[in-house]
Specification:
Length: 438
């Protein structure tokens, strides 16, 4: 519990000095009224503290979420109760969080109704990890409005910030639904690919090249071959976990967007019978799951992805991609999530990607940096705006050069906004699978 004067009390106390000076100029003996004034104000402050409500009986609580998905927003309620005595007219609240969480508003005022005051706030999860609510504070004035009574409760309440697994599954189900707003149902198995599945009656609209003339002659009816998409492909998500991937895009780190897209791809790939693996690297490899198969493997990949933390180290493409190539025993689809900041690191990356391309199909996932594009497009108003626009344009130009060189090498490219990178990656994966390029 802390007690300190309000601005009104400080102003009232400060009036004693000019009052004493003015009275002394009129009559020397009246200067004693100045100290008397200060003593009177001090007595009023003491009386305000004695009459202040809730000094001992006030209860302060916070009801918040047990956990949050990265980028999600959920409500919480800070409440102050005054079960005994006189309740104040209003209470001001404040909450102290660590860097994984953000509150809106972080401070606020609420009126007391039926001996309770509550402030609703929105908690936003900024980064994965252990979010903490360090402290909740409430303060209110005494009945004379001269003193603040403040209560600080140290909670150290943990709110784990995790990957948005529910959102990943919902997105996968949405893509495979018959909802007209999404589009026609994706035919994942039959009707495409190169693996023979069965013979079926030839129907109008089917490809005539699929007719099996020998079996048709034997059965006396037109029969066509039905194919399904080939299964058992190897898909490895190679995720750059270095410094640049920790930078935010659309309110969330690039790494979180990459992990969500990876898990969406893994969820669908495992359902379709392919084998999926996870590989992470920054200055050195830090995660290597090997390829796993079957829908039951998804929880293990989910737990492994949740352990990938943000790093402040620069990415070593030579070590990371060389070790990845050594772990791949057969042709695989290698999905690389990264971001390039300078030409030196880009050259090293391109050199090692070229080695991967000799045996594997490589797909690069690049996220549009809308903030960088907005800086480049903004009409300059000051010299600093011009400098920022020039730097932004140079970075975007270097990025475009890297993308162009990757395309010429034969690398598949997915470019999308950060919040749409998952569906865009999934669409390209299905396209490659139907074209039998895996």
């Amino acid at each position: 519990m802390r007690i300190y004067p309000t601005a009104a009390a400080i102003l009232l106390m400060a009036l004693g000095a000019p009052l004493a000076l003015g009275l002394a100029l009129v009559a020397a003996r009246l200067w004693l009224l100045g100290p008397a004034w200060i003593a009177l104000v001090a007595a009023l402050l003491f009386l305000d503290v004695l009459l202040a409500p809730g000094r001992r009986s006030m209860r302060l609580t916070l009801a918040g979420p047990g956990s949050l998905a990265s980028g999600a927003v959920q409500g919480a309620l800070i409440e102050a109760g005054f079960p005994r005595g006189v309740a104040p007219g209003a209470v001001e609240f404040a909450v102290d969080l660590n860097d994984r969480l953000e509150a809106a508003p972080a401070t606020g005022r609420a009126r007391v109704h039926e001996r309770r005051a509550g402030l609703r706030i929105d908690l936003r999860a900024l980064r994965r990890g252990e979010g903490r609510i360090h402290r909740v504070s409430a303060r209110w004035r005494g009945p004379l409005g001269l003193m603040w009574i403040q209560r600080d409760d140290r909670l150290e309440q943990v709110v784990p910030v995790t990957l948005d697994i529910a959102g990943i599954k919902d997105e996968a189900l949405r893509l495979f639904s018959r909802d007209p707003s999404v589009g026609h149902r994706l035919q994942l198995d039959l009707g495409g690919g190169s693996d023979f599945h069965a013979l079926t009656d030839f129907r109008p609209g089917m490809n005539r090249r699929a007719i099996d003339w020998k079996q048709s002659a034997r059965h006396g009816a037109l029969l066509a071959k039905e194919f399904h998409v080939e299964r058992n492909h190897h898909i490895v998500a190679a995720i750059d976990t270095g410094r640049l991937m920790g930078q935010p895009l659309l309110g969330r780190p690039r790494l979180d967007h990459a992990l969500n897209a990876t898990l969406l791809l893994a969820y669908v790939g495992l359902k379709m019978g392919d084998k999926v693996g996870l590989f992470g690297f920054d200055a050195r490899p830090n995660i290597a799951s090997g390829v796993t198969s079957g829908p039951n493997a998804f929880p293990a990949l989910q737990r492994l992805a949740s352990k990938i933390d943000y790093s402040a180290e620069e990415t070593n493409y030579t070590l990371g991609l060389t070790q990845l190539a050594g772990q791949l025993s057969r042709r695989s689809l290698v999905v690389v999530f990264t971001d390039v900041a300078d030409s030196t690191s880009a050259e090293l990356m391109l050199e090692n990607v070229g080695r991967l391309l000799r045996q594997h199909l490589v797909l690069f996932v690049m996220m549009h940096d809308e903030e960088l594009a907005a800086i480049e497009r903004k009409a300059p108003e000051t010299a600093d705006d011009v400098s920022r626009a020039v730097v932004a344009a140079a970075l975007m130009r270097e990025r475009e050069v890297v993308v162009t060189r990757l395309r010429r090498m034969g690398v598949e490219i997915v470019e999308a906004a950060a919040d749409q990178v998952g569906p865009a990656l999934l669409a390209r994966y299905l396209d490659l699978k139907r074209r039998d390029l895996l």
